[in-house]
Amino acid sequence: MDVFAQRLKKCREDLKKTNPNYTQAFVANKIGVARTTYTAYENGTKIPPLDTVIIIADFFGVSSDYLLGRTNIKNQGELAAHRSDNFLEDLPEEAVKELETFKEFIRSKYGNKE
């Protein structure tokens, strides 16, 4: 089974743990394909067209890159946090301290919005 099929099935099964409605037929209906077609996607015997991959990603709240195995980061929130963390890791310590000082300046000027 390929990465897409594995991740697709996992997305559905994770939701099914808290909501038993998430059957293959339910998801197929929501994304606009036949149940047999959706089952083939989960089994890895059929590959969905790109527009369907996007619909599936939106339905499950994950990125298409995650479904396709291009990243292990599931969604935009995780991606933003990951990019932010990596950005700071690449900076010298003094630059990170300057950013913290600037952040405090902005908070004092505009108020703490966190």
From TrEMBL:
CDD domains: HTH_XRE
HTH cro/C1-type domain boundaries: 8-67
Keyword Heme: no
Keywords assigned: DNA-binding
Keyword DNA-binding included in the entry's annotation: yes
Name of the protein described by the UniProt record: HTH cro/C1-type domain-containing protein
Lineage, top ranks: Bacteria, Bacillati, Bacillota, Bacilli, Bacillales
